[in-house]
Write a sequence for this structure.
DNA sequence: CATGAATGAGCCTTCATTCAT
DNA sequence: AATGAATGAAGGCTCATTCAT
């Protein structure tokens, strides 16, 4: 409906490019389209045809992960425990950010290169808002936090984990500790403050 | 006794360079020594003579703020309320990070360009450790946070504020909200967990 | 099978670059890639794409001459007169060094930038060794000279000619005189010394 | 008669500078006046006052060695054996060139920075000419070599030794071998050629 | 569609030399 | 005399992007 399906060879190139980019992101190398082209055994022009900017490529790399998060978000909406649903959703989000280096920049970016990214971010934001509203309504969460705070806070935790450093395994651990602390703070509504 | 005082003209240039750098940092432009030189109306060589690397210049720009924090830290050590002292110290720190764009990169950097920076960072870290230990001993803080978590968490909050965006005034506000939440989480020891 | 032939335009640029470099070498100007680019009317990047370092370009400039020497060397091996063959080979070598300013640095360099250069140098060295060994075996040459002395001595003569100065024509003449003297010394084995 | 003697402190500085330069030359580091100043613990200006150019400093470093050569040359003139005198003189010269890195560039330079250098070079050239003429007159030397060939040939040998490489001890050895060969060639006049 | 050569702005850095102090 | 700060031309190299083939 939206996009004409790619010719078979073009699709193969598209896959190669994304795979190479994924590998580069995982090893922390900044995405340079020339570089990606060389490693993929393709011409620069081909890469540019598929991805007009480094950001577009990065977002493409991040997409599957964002989709998984969005899927999980839809399930979370079905959860009847307001606090539990929020907690699970945020946990998943932070785990993803810490595990997948492509998410942080995409999430924090003020503008998106691909419409699909915008869709997914909007969807996630909407889920987050809903879950937070429910929790707030259930008085399970301090009232001075708005839904616009969720993304920044998740980015903040991911960044904190990054600054802390350590092996990938360490990082997940650290992320859980930091998130636990923050969630405790979210929960403990300043009743009499 | 420490450093030979600069000649008057050299001092003037030093000041100019730092002032230009300060301005660039404040408007979010990355520091490039050639650029700084041009804007300061000086030769490149002059800037290189004073600051061997962009990092050295950045740290110089950050120094006054770090010194103010360190001074405040020394006072905080005299505070007899373990929790209050920690809270005040972290508040100041986050306010500074959010207000002054030179702090975040300097704080997060694994290596320092200037000895003075190392001194100040060490001093701040030591104050933080002491205050956290006291609070932990007073059971005012959840036990699973170590002193090595303080810097990452402060950087995380600063980053969250950055992602949230808004005017400088907004940002201080946001910082207070985020910090308050986190502190609540620090305080509320997971009693039965 | 060896190298993909260059595209027509790329080949034209390659030629231009080498031609400019040749001219610079001939007039004694040191090769600077930026400079070459400007004179060739090309972008710096183009020159860097073709030749990663000044040495690579210089060796490319020297290659045709080295190939001619190598070809002559192969013929010299067929000469049945041990002394005559050596003499002819060394004469050609020195004439080349004196005539073509690109040879001296390439010959004297301890490391090569291009594999082709290494091939050619190895080949020439091997011819020289063979010819010297034959002459030594025929007792036509003083025994205290090793094949590792050939290159230095040829470089030495070329350098002597350079110091002497004069027009290109003068220089060939001088080279012949110097080489004749040296060859006389090589021949006259110190019988009773 | 010529120069006002330096003030005591100025003389001390002069000495320091030359000593530092000597050390740099010996270790093969190119002479940079800024660098020399720093190592000597002096201001750049001071070094410039004493030596207007790097060449002037280099020539100053070379001077003692040139003077020793000149002194030996004057003695050689008293030697009654034409060939022996020439041989001894050239041997000394080559040994010096190979041993002292300051000589090669000074000798090969077409122009001098210091009058004293010109004096010494002239003197040496004159000695060489005289010795060669005597040897030629005694028919001890092939007639097609002129006195203007001596300097180039010595430079050539030094350069050959340099290209050959090896430890300082090796180099003297190599120099003797190369010079012996060349001298043999000088001696063996091409009687019937 | 794919290719990859070309581009050139832009950044970094060094160093010989001058000149105010 | 000595100092050393300032200068800025000069050279090196990278990389995002375009466009002819």
């Amino acid at each position: 409906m939206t996009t004409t399906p790619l010719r078979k060879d073009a699709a193969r190139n598209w896959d190669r490019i994304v795979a190479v980019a994924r590998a580069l992101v995982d090893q922390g190398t900044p995405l340079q389209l020339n570089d990606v082209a060389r490693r993929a055994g393709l011409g620069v022009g081909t890469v540019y045809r598929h991805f007009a900017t480094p950001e577009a490529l990065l977002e493409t790399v991040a997409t599957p992960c964002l989709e998984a998060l969005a899927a999980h978000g839809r399930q979370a909406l079905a959860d009847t425990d307001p606090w539990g649903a929020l907690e699970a959703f945020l946990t998943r989000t932070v785990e993803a950010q810490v595990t997948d280096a492509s998410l942080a920049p995409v999430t924090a970016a003020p503008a998106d290169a691909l419409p699909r990214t915008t869709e997914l971010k909007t969807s996630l934001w909407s889920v987050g808002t809903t879950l937070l509203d429910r929790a707030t309504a259930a008085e399970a969460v301090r009232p001075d936090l708005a839904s616009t705070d969720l993304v920044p806070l998740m980015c903040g935790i991911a960044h904190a984990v990054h600054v802390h450093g350590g092996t990938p395994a360490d990082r997940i651990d650290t992320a859980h500790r930091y998130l636990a602390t923050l969630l405790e703070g979210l929960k403990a509504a300043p009743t009499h403050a």
